[in-house]
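Dear support,

I submitted the protein below through the web form. The confirmation email said the job was done, but the results page showed an empty box. After a refresh the structure appeared. I'm attaching both so you can tell me whether what I see now is the final result or a partial one.
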Amino acid sequence: MYKKPSSVRSTVSVPGVSVIEFASAVMPDSPAEKSGLLKGDVIVKINDQDVGTVEDLQRVIRTKKIGEEVTILIFREDEYESVKVKLEERPAQ
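What the results page shows now:
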């Protein structure tokens, strides 16, 4: 299967939440960083629940417990990929 070079940006529109939109998504030592999420990834589902907006993402995450592992379906470089994320307490800001 052909995989486009990472320097070529996708023009495909995929419903979901761009990691860039979710401000705290890829902070150093965060669960997102530990799981390999990257800026530019689009979060499509969490545990098979559709995520179309930041509010959807927050609603789904609020139903989970600290320490729980979730499976996140992302769209990256024209391909879907699943990543596992262990939820942690959000640091004080």
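Response: this is the final, complete result; the empty box was a page-load delay. The chain has one domain: 17-84.
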